[in-house]
Amino acid sequence: MSVRNLQMDPQSGEHTLRSADYRDRLVDWESRAASGGDFLERLLHRQDVRSVADVACGTGVTALGLARSGLTVTAADGSPHMVAKTREAADEQGVALADARVADWMRLDRDLGANRFDAVVCLGDAFSHLFESEARRDAVEAFYRTVRPGGLLILDHRNYDALLESGTGSRPYQSGQDVEAWPTALNRYLTRFEYRFRDGARFQRSMYPLRQDYVSHLLEDAGFVDVERFGDFQRPYNRLAARLIQQVGRKPRG
What we know:
With 254 residues, the protein is an alpha/beta fold. The protein has one domain: 3-Layer(aba) Sandwich (Rossmann fold). The protein contains ten helices and eleven strands. The protein has helices at 17-20, 23-26, 29-36, 39-46, 61-68, 80-93, 108-112, 133-146, 160-166, 212-222; strands spanning 51-54, 72-77, 99-102, 117-122, 147-158, 173-174, 179-186, 191-197, 202-207, 225-231, 244-250. The strands form two sheets. It has a seven-stranded mixed beta sheet, with helices on both faces. It has a four-stranded antiparallel beta sheet with strand order 6-7-8-9, with no helix packed on it. Helix 8 packs across helix 10. The longest helix has 14 residues, at 80-93. The radius of gyration is 17 Å and the shape is globular.
């Protein structure tokens, strides 16, 4: 994610180095893998993808998994700390990445290269950290310029439609195995969660509530075509029952 567009809150500790160490516990990667199976790998291999840029790599869980599946993977993040964590994990696990580097979403094609990748993936609800509509537009347009003609953008986000329309704010919203999350603010402009860990740590994270139709239109406005949606890696899906929404768009070949 692009550092310059993150909301930094010294009172809540959002996105500090310490909270970055809890990132894999905020996103329950084991649960995501169990529910999604090899959805991402199957999708990429089915589309004959060879090179991938994971532009919200975090600590490298997705990037390393894709590299192990035989893809050429560049891991990128707006946080130097996250990139360092990814490099450390790659070294420890003996996984070769094409590159791991800091990159700004707004200038992704300049940081990573224009028309370079068969696919750009932006996972873990990272895109919801952009609060300005112009920033979201500019980021998706930069994603578009980074993908080769015929290539894919795969972006996932929390199902904010369900949160806003079903009134789930009064009960815990479970995330990882050792963390519970409560919405402390929930409206059309802001969703803020407080994460409470079993070890006593607490963090707050603020996200922009991305509506499903809005994201699809954002991809289309940038030039992506044949935009498809999945709910919890399935299609068809219940619009208000899925926890996560995956959106897939293709850059035209010519």
